[in-house]
Write a structure and sequence with these properties.
5-stranded mixed β-sheet
């Protein structure tokens, strides 16, 4: 993480209320919770030497004064108490307002974090949670720390049953919770642009009454950049399905696609091409072929209106496949400048078969009136 997670919370609430300052252990009254687990640090294997009687009395007085002082500061609002608990992750749910998709987390994606937790003997950076009321299955919900929750849950199910979920309990409304989760996710590369964009779109409606300027100010983001993210969030699922994975949808090219869809004359061809590419992606997966890259998808979708205007349909390209069902040759484009033919690697077709396929492709174009001009 670029910054300590505890700094995120302090910075987030700086405009709204006094900063969160964790008090020393001796000055904090732990918040009782049925889901908490006794800390392993509570029983130290080596006891410190006992102080002399007069020094012990002096230390006792100092401790009592320090505790009274800390309690007075908490009561006055100068210091807001933060309670850190060791929790059973099964009693903690994920707040749905977070951009990260919990269902898409995997062992491979969390491997580095899992290894770090094992090496350090437990989770060192606490998550941020808030209390849940009225749900018999859960006591808390995660605001920041979704990957930590998943990793601890995975470890408990795979030979580390004593692992506990370390969390700080915070009092946050939904808007403050969203800002905190957003700050943490900005430092994460595995949260895709599309996930963040759709998370922003939902938050704009839920927390900011569709006031873009206010949302940008609260998140300390550029209004123009936020506007682009919201534009990408509006991409239809038909277009998203053309990509091998939603994670391939990146802000800059996706924004260009969203702008192209604003053209009512171009949108039908783009949507038709997207449906065709979604079928092609599925077919390639079934045949064990590599998917179309994100750049290929964007290029073909943006080219669809031009090809349709030149006499093409914008639909699935003409493809010749081998007897084994593998694509070997396809028509990528046909216009006044010429015809673009693609020969697919790994098809297994020999030179004679490809030459025959080329003749068939040219005949197909002639039949549609899109043959090479002589």
């Amino acid at each position: 993480m670029a910054r300590k997670q505890s700094d995120y919370l302090a910075g987030l609430l700086a405009d709204d209320e006094p900063p969160v300052i964790p008090a020393p252990v001796a000055d904090v009254i732990p918040d009782a919770a049925p889901a908490s687990v006794p800390s392993p640090a509570a029983a130290s294997p080596v006891a410190p030497p006992a102080p002399a009687p007069e020094r012990r009395e002096r230390l006792r007085g100092t401790t009592l004064l320090g505790r009274e002082s800390a309690l007075a500061r908490v009561a006055s609002g100068e210091v807001r108490q933060v309670t850190q608990l060791l929790l059973d992750p099964a009693r903690v749910r994920i707040w749905p307002g977070n951009a990260r998709s919990y269902a898409h987390l995997t062992e491979e994606g969390c491997r580095e974090l899992i290894d770090s937790i094992i090496a350090e003997g437990g989770q060192k950076v606490p998550a941020v949670v808030r209390r849940v009321e009225g749900d018999p299955d859960y006591d808390y919900e995660v605001i920041a720390g979704t990957r930590r929750h998943w990793s601890i849950s995975w470890l408990r199910a795979h030979s580390y049953p004593d692992m506990v979920f370390v969390a700080q309990v915070a009092v946050l409304d939904d808007e403050a919770a969203f800002r905190l989760a957003d700050l943490e996710n900005r430092a994460r590369k595995d949260v895709s642009d599309l996930e963040r964009a759709r998370n922003y779109a939902a938050a704009l409606r839920s927390h900011y009454d569709n006031h873009l300027t206010r949302m940008a100010e609260r998140l300390k983001l550029s209004k123009g950049w936020l506007s682009k993210m919201l534009k990408v969030a509006a991409l239809p699922d038909t277009v998203i399905a053309a990509f091998a994975s939603p994670a391939d949808v990146q802000l800059k090219p996706a924004y260009t696609l969203a702008q192209a869809l604003d053209d009512k004359s171009a949108a039908p061809a783009i949507l038709a091409k997207a449906k065709a590419m979604a079928r092609e992606q599925k077919s390639r997966q079934e045949q064990g072929l590599g998917p179309w890259s994100a750049a290929d998808v964007v290029r073909q979708l943006l080219d669809a209106p031009r090809l349709a205007g030149a006499g093409g349909s914008g639909e699935r390209p003409w493809v010749w496949t081998t007897p084994h069902g593998r694509p070997a040759l396809s028509i990528q484009s046909a216009n006044r400048q010429g015809v673009t033919i693609r020969l697919h690697a790994g098809s297994g077709a020999d030179a004679d078969e490809l030459a025959d396929a080329l003749r068939r492709a040219l005949a197909h174009l002639e039949a549609q009136g899109r043959g090479l001009q002589r």
